[in-house]
Write a structure and sequence with these properties.
- The structure holds 2 protein chains of 2 kinds.
- Chain A is about 0% helix and about 55% strand.
- Chain A is mostly beta strands.
- Chain B is mostly beta strands.
- In chain B, the strands form 2 sheets. In chain B, strands 1, 3, 4, 8, 9 and 10 form a 6-stranded mixed beta sheet that branches.
- The chains are: A mainly beta, B mainly beta.
- The interface of A and B includes residues 33, 48, 50, 95 and 108 of A.
Chain lengths: ~120, ~110
């Protein structure tokens, strides 16, 4: 299994530009999570999906952030317009829910975003 | 939501046993205690998970007392490669396994 795949691994952009981060979860996993990590705030959960449906987006910082999951094998996190304070490492994670058993989340390698 | 508190940093030497204790005073009945490990420039990696008493796997042991207000991750005979940040967190069963990460414990293993 290839694990959770994220692209790009690094992104440098200018303030005001649109940024799209991509994630391919592990096949068969029906939960997908987006996290953001910074030195100041640590690891924060932004949003998570179950069976492609957004369940909890309370961690999304503001309307500039949006996430979609058009199918079971693909999700995007979009920032429009981007700002320097959005600079962080963004992680995607996926998990399978098996009845009566709490499975673990598998994290991708992350996308390091720098907004100038 | 269960808030976890753990030491910010710990130092150890190769070959020693390391115990990292985490407090979670307001843990809910359905919450599981889970520990993740994170190396620089990588995503967190699952280590161990438990609900009560003791759980052991090939990597670590997890001790959870009856009141579940704390837990201790035990790493036997650490090596330099165990230098990482360790997160204790509650996995919220009723919310799709939602994880709330705390500040983590930065473990430094010295030769």
């Amino acid at each position: 299994d290839a694990g959770v795949i994220q692209s790009p691994r690094h992104e440098v952009t200018e303030m005001g530009q649109e940024v799209t981060l991509r994630c391919k979860p592990i096949s068969g996993h029906d939960y997908l999570f987006w996290y953001r990590q910074t030195m100041m705030r640590g690891l924060e959960l932004l949003i998570y999906f179950n069976n492609n449906v957004p369940i909890d987006d309370s961690g999304m910082p503001e309307d500039r952030f949006s996430a979609k999951m058009p199918n079971a094998s693909f999700s995007t996190l979009k920032i429009q317009p981007s700002e320097p304070r959005d600079s962080a490492v963004y992680f995607c994670a996926s998990r399978a829910q098996r009845a009566g058993f709490m499975d673990t989340q598998y994290f991708g390698p992350g996308t390091r975003l720098t907004v100038l | 939501l269960a808030k976890t508190t753990q030491p910010i940093s710990m130092d150890s030497y190769e070959g020693q046993e390391v115990n990292i204790t985490c407090s979670h005073n307001n843990i809910a009945t359905n919450d599981y205690i889970t520990w993740y490990q994170q190396f620089p420039s990588q995503g967190p990696r699952f280590i161990i998970q438990g609900y009560k008493t003791k759980v052991t796997n090939e990597v670590a042991s997890l001790f959870i007392p009856a009141d579940r207000k704390s837990s201790t991750l035990s790493l036997p005979r650490v090596s330099l490669s165990d230098t990482a940040v360790y997160y204790c967190l509650a996995i919220i069963y009723n919310q799709g396994g939602k994880l709330i990460f705390g500040q983590g414990t930065e473990l430094s293993v010295k030769p």
